[in-house]
Automatic annotation (TrEMBL):
SUPFAM superfamilies: Glyceraldehyde-3-phosphate dehydrogenase-like, C-terminal domain (SSF55347), NAD(P)-binding Rossmann-fold domains (SSF51735). Residues 138-327 form the Gfo/Idh/MocA-like oxidoreductase C-terminal domain. Residues 5-119 form the Gfo/Idh/MocA-like oxidoreductase N-terminal domain. InterPro entries: Gfo-Idh-MocA_inositol_DH, Gfo/Idh/MocA-like_OxRdtase_C, Gfo/Idh/MocA-like_OxRdtase_N, NAD(P)-bd_dom_sf. This is Myo-inositol 2-dehydrogenase/D-chiro-inositol 1-dehydrogenase. One of its GO terms (molecular function) is nucleotide binding. PANTHER family: INOSITOL 2-DEHYDROGENASE, PTHR43593. Belongs to the Gfo/Idh/MocA family.
Length: 333
């Protein structure tokens, strides 16, 4: 396919509109031909801005003859049917997390794709395309840290909407560290434990914010994640890997601390996810477009989406029970 990849963007809220603008202005070889959203005025606004058509029904948008590939940024409850429709149409799809909202429907998509002759479903875990995470991954796989023993993650947001309760924090925020751990260590997470301490006064009643989430992997490695989404400061994401031959931390360049001649020290922190991971999103989209023009994907696939849903479901159970909860996953086709 030598011409531009023709893309339908389903869902143009904050994330979908960001992707639509990127595809229209920063990504080479792509054209957004169709926009869909349940909010007709929002769909019309984005479509007019980037020169696309509005198609009111998402399944008609997927089947549109002027659509070669689909980007899904709709609410998670809509993903199962929309991703399946992309598989039925044989069209590559980039789906923002979650793959679906439950384990059974996610695994059904794993099984459905396994019947095809090529992978079509890519998940929007953009950190795999961030230069620092790629460098850290390469350092681990090359043996530069020796045997990796521990991973420590920090994930802080300045503020979030009121509906971000403890369970939503697991599904919407901790899910990124789930994929980071699997990406860096190249093994599955087998259990989740959540430690709930004193909550910030900014948290709604009944919400545990911050929390410490502890993952255990197949080989017994431990991963910790501090999740604090109402810090009131800025967007801070850091990851440290401790190995037998050294340790390495990323996320510091974006959160620079410096000293000055007047005896002061301090720095700036990225205010939001766009400033921290904007380039990663663009790289993700560019690579997906190149692969989709060949009828396939280039990045985390449907199994990665299923694994993340399974781990987060165990995490939600851990929040509810206060117990260490095993991750239950079916066999990989």
């Amino acid at each position: 396919m030598s011409a531009d990849l023709r893309i339908a963007v389903l869902g143009v809220g904050m994330m979908g509109a960001f992707h639509a603008d990127a595809l229209a202005t920063r990504v080479k070889g792509a054209t957004v031909t169709v926009v869909n959203d349940f909010a007709a005025d929002k769909a019309a606004e984005v479509a007019a801005r980037i020169g696309a058509r509005v198609v009111a029904d998402p399944f008609e948008a997927i089947a549109d003859p002027e659509v070669d590939a689909v980007l899904i940024a709709t609410p998670g409850a809509a993903h199962a049917g929309q991703v399946q429709a992309c598989l039925d149409a044989g069209k590559p799809v980039l789906c923002e997390k979650p793959l679906t909202t439950d384990i059974a429907s996610s695994y059904a998509l794993v099984q459905a794709e396994a019947k095809l002759d090529r992978p079509l479903v890519q998940l929007g875990f953009m950190r795999r395309f961030d230069a620092e995470y790629v460098t850290l991954h390469d350092l681990i796989t090359s043996g530069g840290l020796g045997n990796p023993l521990l991973v420590h993650c920090t994930h802080r947001n300045p503020t979030v909407p009121e509906h971000f309760n403890s369970e939503f924090m697991i599904r919407d925020s901790v899910v990124h560290e789930v994929d980071v751990a699997r990406f860096l260590l190249d093994e599955e997470i087998t259990s989740v434990q959540v430690l709930r301490g004193v909550a910030t006064s900014a948290a709604p009643e009944g919400t545990n914010d911050p929390m410490i989430v502890v993952f255990e992997t197949t080989s017994g490695r431990l991963v910790t994640d501090e999740i604090y989404v109402r810090s009131g400061i800025a967007y801070e994401v850091r990851t440290e890997v401790v190995g037998e031959a050294g340790s390495a931390m990323i996320g510091l360049d974006q959160n620079l601390v410096r000293t000055t001649t007047d005896g002061r020290w301090g720095g700036t922190i990225t205010p939001g996810f766009v400033e921290r991971f904007g380039q990663a999103y663009d790289t993700e989209l560019q690579r997906w477009v190149a692969a989709a023009k060949q009828g396939t994907i280039d990045g985390p696939g449907v199994w990665d989406g299923y694994a993340a849903v399974a781990v987060c479901e165990a995490g939600v159970q851990a929040v509810r029970t206060g117990e260490k909860v095993p991750v239950v996953m079916e066999a990989r086709p």
